[in-house]
Amino acid sequence: MPNTYTAITKKDGDWWIGWVEEIPGVNCQEKSHEQLIETLRITLKEALELNREEAIRAADHDYQEQPIAV
Prior knowledge:
The chain is α+β, with helices and mostly antiparallel strands and 70 residues long. Helix content is 39%, strand content 23%.
């Protein structure tokens, strides 16, 4: 089952702006709401992958991964 996140979006003049509530730094702007949601999805995916890579790099070696449900 995929994880679900919350997009906060609003129209600001000619632009749609949005943020992913749960992940700091994931924010975008686009000309249409549909484009904004797609760009937020792509940016969120990239941010999660970068965070994952950074955590693994920081752990160096001999680490364990364990799912955590909230």
